[in-house]
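Take a look at this chain, tokens included, and explain the fold to me:
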Amino acid sequence: MAVIDNIFKALPDALLQEQFETLAESGQLKIERIVSRGQPSPASGWHDQPQNEWVMVVEGEAILSFIDQPQISLATGDFLLIPAHQKHRVSYANPEQVTIWLAIHYPQ
């Protein structure tokens, strides 16, 4: 049976760190919702994922930093593909509003 849900449902009022929620997963494909309220990625390192990651800012704004290219500013509706092993991190998310990401992880 099909189940209806909503990406804007049950948004947290306050967060100490980004919130990751798996929406669907099958084999090597994972779709997740990421929610932040101004939290950048931990300063201790870079995301270095073995799979490709397609991300879209559903609501809000953020800046992604890459170890080997200029920063990219993203706003509502913007999306990009982050190839596997491209080191990246969220260096800014607007603390005045929620930032909701839709991320799809899949193999190379």
Remarks:
- The mean pLDDT is 90.
- The chain has one domain: 19-106.
